[in-house]
């Protein structure tokens, strides 16, 4: 029996998380906005029907609030992250092999299951809806690329009731479906690659499926050739098993936010940068990595065209890899001082940890004694443990400030229903 994969994807995930705790949002056009309530990052099906674009600035759609009763919400990533963790934990119980692909997507290995896969997938959807209240779609195929494409079909065609499997199609039906889907929907085929494929006469998924692998490899490389093989049912991508989302090792870590109001002075920028580096360092330790380079950047608001613009970044190479937030914060502050220029209204700052590698491969520092490294490791462990137990920022660096003045705007954020005792959802009995 060949390989069989399923891709489980949460429908309109951010909006669905909000609807779990606020049923009044059901059936209404809802959008979730990005940091500082700037752009649209999630839409309900009703909002899509109004023609509201993903990523569009909210002011472009604001007239729908009056004309069509559009409801807008500030993003609540604490809630979404916790609901995602619950979803992934539940899916982990349904298959021995799991790959968490994103906050709302998960691959499962169904190889060897001899029962009706469509029935199994429908039972899986019902269980998720019953336990978590989240709607999902499931795609099934003999490769990860086919499973992801099947998920797309399950979403676009209500007749399949949220589940589509290539296993239940014959060759003619498969080709007909693939001919109706643009090649840009294939996993890993972006806008630029789509243009190049179109120039070769490859417009649909079916065109790519039957393209010459030797030509594809010569023109685009082995990665796209592997995609062609996957479309033909040849599994080339193994499952990257992740029983804990924190063990998904990233190649870079970014921490940045836009400010709720313009920031003009260096001390406020330093507080923001130290706060961001602290969070990035926590993520770095969670995946048991060190970083070899640190990037710091600041910029003004590019949409405020009436103001003078400024953007600058600096990359700091580290002699030895680090994961200690104190050391990284000191270096980030020094880098910020070099790129800061007075007289501007800054809108955003951020940090990036680059050149990541496993902690066990770290090279020793000739001028750092083993006791110093041990103390650093133990202190960071203690800080992480306390913050995990008693809440984020319970123990933090003084450089991050006691009362941040640069926090982002979040006017319509829902409560943290699942992670804060004082924000639990309340139920009232009808009398």
Spatial arrangement of strands, main beta sheet? 5-6-1-7-8
**What proportion strand?**
15-25%
N-to-C series of helices and strands: EHEEHHHEHEEHEHEHHHHHEHEEHEEH
The gyration radius over C-alpha positions equals: 24 Å
**Average pLDDT taken over every residue:** 88
Low-confidence stretches: 242-247
- The count of helical stretches stands at 15
Percentage of residues assigned to helices: 25-40%
Main sheet characteristics: 5 strands, mixed
- Cα distance, first to last residue? 58 Å
Report the structural category.
alpha+beta
Assembly level: single chain
Task: Write out key terms for the chains shown.
13 strands; 15 helices; 5-stranded mixed sheet; 5-stranded antiparallel sheet; about 20% strand; single chain; globular; about 425 residues; alpha+beta
Describe, in plain words, how this protein is organized in 3D.
- Helix 11 runs antiparallel to helix 12 (222-231) and helix 13 (266-286) runs antiparallel to helix 14.
- 33% of the residues are buried.
- Helix content is 39%, strand content 19%.
- A hairpin with a 6-residue loop joins strand 2 and strand 3.
- The strands form 3 sheets. The protein has a 5-stranded mixed β-sheet. Strands 9, 10, 11, 12 and 13 form a 5-stranded antiparallel β-sheet that branches.
- The chain starts with a strand and ends in a 41-residue tail after the last helix.
- The protein is built from 15 helices and 13 strands.
- It is globular, with a radius of gyration of 24 Å.
- Mean pLDDT is 88; it is low at 242-247.
- The protein has 431 residues and is α+β, with helices and mostly antiparallel strands.
